[in-house]
Please model this.
Amino acid sequence: MRRCAKCSDKGTIYLPEHRLSLCKTHYLEWFESRVEKAIKSFRMFSKEDNILVAVSGGKDSLGLWHALWKLGYKADGLYINLGIGEYSELSEKKAKAFADKIGKKLHVVYLKENIMDIPTLKELQSRPACSVCGTLKRYYMNLTAKKLGYSVIATGHNLDDECAVLMGNVLSWNIDYLVRQYPVLEEGNGFVRKVKPLCLVSEKQSAMYAFLSGIDFVEDECPYAVGASSISYKLIMAKIEEESPGTKLRFYLEFIRKVRPMFALKQNVKLNPCQVCGEPTTGDVCSVCRLKMRLEASKAGMKQNF
Ligand SMILES: [Zn+2]
Ligand SMILES: [Zn+2]
Model:
């Protein structure tokens, strides 16, 4: 039986990539210190910042909010209701219950009121639901944070998420996306700063943290995410990690340290305010406003091919 490296109680959790065995109490402490380490080493934010945590009701985002709260940061939540039937209803309920439990504010934005719910959007156009959904979430997160005066948006992307995205971008050598893959996207040009404080912890570790902290989270993935390519990349990475613990961390951190700086010189995207809504865009009208115009046009009976 392994013993906790900190207190020599019976260790219940073994972390092969760190060759570390910890009891429940010291695991929670370790996890929070990993989050703090990411915040400090990537200079994400300070105790003075007003942080808006994008919560989905799942383990990662609620766990992140919990860790920030425990670490003494000023963090409220933002829930974007996508209008995906029971899945959205249940996740909103759990996000609200969690906010009440820690005594923090949860802001809610309904896609249906601002543009259209995801199921209707999916019917109307041929692009995969996840890509439109991602665009809309980023747009309303940024808009809401600015409107409510938050200086930082924190999302619950974990190491597995980052590795899956990195793998996808490497497989197609998508340099423009590789340049942008960093746990901090600085503010400016109409964008609020965006950070990923869970980038040093794996999905498994994050699930364990949420579970041991007694957080009531939604276990189901979004019903539309099934079959997304990122899921198969995660499975492949998990297989490699199992045979060689520490691979994911190395893959991600060595990219950040050695490879990304070589591309960073190339970063030169020009942004203008959207002529309709004022949010930043590379063109004249942003993608969300263009989507709205297309939806209006199709409502007006002009059948268009999306
Ligand atoms: Zn211990
Ligand atoms: Zn716009």
